[in-house]
């Protein structure tokens, strides 16, 4: 059995967590894209209202809307400022008619663009990081020092 070299140890300690992070980002990105594609194909527009007491500091706005006499709540990046919005401010909501729990309050194209701007660079950077780890820990030929 071979002992783990310092190069192999470095690849393991750096590469495995980074590869796991890239994998998780890819899964989240794929699930988000699937949700948006479902909304594109089965989306229904309605009017919702902002719920001010549930706004977050990350820029997400809590909103609620009614479908078939049932209230649904969600959070998203709505085109309103949570700090200046009042409880009950109207927002446009797009929900999946098959599952109203799946909804967005931002226009679909903006949501797709935001997702692309966020996830794509992270995944590319993660893949480049894994490649960089292997490149920096590659086996290097020993240097020959000439005697003078």
Choose one word for the global shape: elongated
Which sequence of SSEs, written as H and E, runs from N to C? HEEEEEH
Give the neighbour order of strands across the main sheet: 3-2-1-4-5
Structure summary, number of beta strands: 5
Which blocks of ≥5 consecutive residues have pLDDT under 50? none
Structural classification: alpha+beta
How many structurally independent domains?
A: 1
How would you sum up the major sheet?
A: 5 strands, antiparallel
**Helicity level, as a percent range?**
40-55%
What's the mean pLDDT score?
Answer: 78
SS strand fraction: 15-25%
Contiguous helical run count? 2
* N- to C-terminal distance: 42 Å
Q: What is the CA-atom radius of gyration, in angstroms?
A: 24 Å
List the helices and strands and how they pair.
Layout: H1 6-42, E1 43-50, E2 61-67, E3 70-76, E4 90-96, E5 99-104, H2 108-136
Antiparallel strand pairs: 1-2, 1-4, 2-3, 4-5
Helix pairs in contact: 1-2
Q: How would you characterize this protein structure?
A:
The chain has 148 residues and is an alpha+beta fold. It has one domain (14-136). It contains 2 helices and 5 strands; from the N terminus they run αβββββα. It has a 5-stranded antiparallel β-sheet. α1 runs antiparallel to α2 (108-136). It is elongated, with a radius of gyration of 24 Å.
